[in-house]
Amino acid sequence: MKAMVLxxxxxxxxxxxxxxxxxxxxxxxxxxxxxIALSRLRAFGVREVIVNTHxxxxxxxxxxxxxxxxxxxxxxxxxxxxxxxxxxLKHAAWFFLEGSARSQEPFIVHxxxxxxxIDLARxxxxxxxxxxxxxxxVQDRATSxxxxxxxxxxxxxxRAGQTVEEAQPELVRPxxxxxxxxxxxxxxxxxxxxxxxxxxxxFSIIPAxxxxxxxxxxxxxxxxxxxxxxxxxxxxxxLQAALDIDSxxxxxx
Length: 253
Fold this sequence. Notes:
two-stranded antiparallel sheet; 10-stranded mixed sheet; alpha/beta; 28% helix; Spore Coat Polysaccharide Biosynthesis Protein SpsA, Chain A
């Protein structure tokens, strides 16, 4: 099984921790964010990973070499210019399309700056059973940017703001009723995604998903409400995650 770890961002929200290192090498409870992400993926059977890099990219090269790639095949996708989540994924397409048989296998995309106990094996089974193009791990929690799903769990729009009054929803396909859910930064994709995404250059993956949903492509919600999840984009979140790991609240990290 293959995966991509999105790690190329500047980590501006994590400053000053990222003043002298990439966010992937910020530590939580004595381990780097990259090690935590790779260990989680390896525990679910992933053996081949591509990591996109930009900010302090050479430090990531040295770190992986010093740790023998954590016993995995790890490729780096260098971005001279930041390509955002969608552009970064598309730039790494070659990794998932190599080999005729294996190029049909779904793969995981995981933000480096999230930690969770989400059951990736269960999520993969859900993705395969529903023949989805993309499966997004989502939760019913407060956020500033919601994704909207219809009664069948299919993506149909998005909404900014924590309350309905703050912003009108942007719907890309009709739905009798919608539920606003928060995206976790963990996706499972079928390689066919690369033939369907029309965007080029630097772009976010979320608008691309919305464009595909408007064309009746199956972009599905995987409900992950019962699992621990934390965004590690700010120093205070790093501190809380360390406490959670030490206390056993986050047992999957």
